[in-house]
Amino acid sequence: MSSSPTVRGVGLGLRWEFADELVERRPSASAFVPPGSLPDFLELAPENYIGRGGYHRTLFERAAAQYPIVTHGLTMSVGGSDPLDRGYLRDLAAFVRDVGSPWHSDHLCFGASRGRILHELLPIAFTKRAVRRVADRVKEAQDALSVPFAVENISQYVALPASEMDEPAFLAEVCEAAGCGLMLDVNNAHVNATNFGFDARDWLARAPLERAVQIHVAGGEWVTDDDGERVLIDTHGADVPDPVMDLLAVALRRTGPVPVLVERDTSIPPLDALLREVARVRAAVADALESRDRARAGSSTLRGP
Q1: Which pLDDT belongs to residue 304?
Q2: What is the DSSP letter of 147?
Q3: Looking at the domain covering 10-303, what would its CATH class be?
Q4: Could you tell me which of 208, 261, 199 has the C-alpha nearest to residue 69?
Q5: How far apart are CA 149 and CA 134, in angstroms?
Q6: Axis-axis angle for helices 16-25, 54-66 (nearest 10)
Q7: Residues in CB range of 150: below 8 A, 6 or more apart
Q8: Rounded Cα–Cα distance for residues 72 and 70 (Å)
Q9: Taking the C-alpha atoms of 58, 60, 66 and 72 in order, what is their torsion angle to the nearest 10 degrees?
Q10: For tag attachment on the chain, is the N or C end more exposed, with fewer CB atoms within 10 Å?
Q11: Residue ranges per domain, the chain?
């Protein structure tokens, strides 16, 4: 399979609920479709396809023939202490190569212990020791995959007292030490800011957005915990809320035109509703980038020749 074209614009995570319908709407990469009516790219979770033949392999091959593809993992556990699974890395490298993903990303968390995958994205303490451990593991993954790697900031629901720094500083140190990119999840920053009471705009101002290769946006859900407190949960089960759209605009004014992905994993609506959400995010991205360009042009004019 040939490499995918450049990943740009606003994409959608491919999910079983609408995958067949989506690939049928675009029979080939060269087929004409009305501009803006479909996602600009697709994101695949390799764990859903690795080791599976038949329908599953045919599906990702068809998707990769029609769209630029980027891969986003769930189970590498870059923040863990178990050795990285060499068999998984071999299979992942082959998958990334087959779909032509220009980079691979996974969550900055631990998700495995003593050889068992926990199926959770669990937070790690933000310490100098963790920076060194994570950076070494990211370098190992990059070497195995032969493409750049990006770490994603996660949503978390407990503060770890062992932390020596806050998350923006930790992300900056990890990215610098590992020489890797940032998968910026704006919704996760919003969720954490809401639940822990800090300013998400300040978080964005101090995070290493110059290393962002891609941005995620999504919607969550409010729940009431056992103590009667309301908590915002990152469910990927709703449209992107206005506060996340606002933060996306703030981020894009720093990052410039990096690809943005709409995540929807639960309460998945019909495909047409999802495509309207992609179009809404696409319009917001265009507005943010136009605002950035105007501000930069105005700054240049004020400075003069």
Answers
A1: 54
A2: S
A3: alpha beta
A4: 261
A5: 12
A6: 50
A7: 103, 104, 105, 180, 181, 182, 183, 211, 213, 214
A8: 7
A9: 180
A10: C
A11: 10-303
User: Which among 10, 41, 6 has a CA at the least distance from the CA of 280?
Assistant: 10
In 3D space, the residue among 126, 10, 150 whose CA is nearest the CA of residue 67 turns out to be: 10
Tokens standing for 176?
A: 């610098």
Fill in the amino acid letter for 198. F
For the stretch 217-221, contacts whose Cβ atoms lie closer than 8 Å and that sit 24 or more positions apart, written own/partner, are 217/186, 217/187, 217/244, 217/245, 217/248, 217/260, 217/261, 217/262, 217/263, 217/281, 218/185, 218/187, 218/244, 218/262, 218/263, 218/264, 219/187, 219/244, 220/187, 220/191
pLDDT tens-digit series, residues 253-291: 999 999 999 999 999 999 999 999 999 999 999 999 999
Helices (H), the chain: 16-25, 54-66, 86-99, 128-145, 167-178, 186-196, 200-206, 242-255, 271-303
Percent residues over pLDDT 70 in the chain? 92
Rg (CA), the chain: 19
Give 83-119 pLDDT, tens digit per residue.
999 999 999 999 999 999 999 999 999 876 666 675 6
Amino acid at 289: L
Residue 224 near residue 177 (C-beta atoms within 8 A) = no
The total number of residues shown for the chain amounts to 305
Beta-bridge mates of residue 214: 183
Tokens of 261: 């992905």
**174, 136 in Cβ contact below 8 A?**
no
Which helix (H) or strand (E) covers residue 31, if one does? none
C-alpha 241, offset from chain centre: 17
Q: What share of the chain is helix, strand, coil (3-state, %, to 5)?
A: 45, 20, 35
Of 91, 69, 92, 63, the closest CA to residue 3 belongs to: 69
| Reported pTM | 0.93
Burial of 158 (0-12, 13-18, 19+ CB in 10 A): exposed
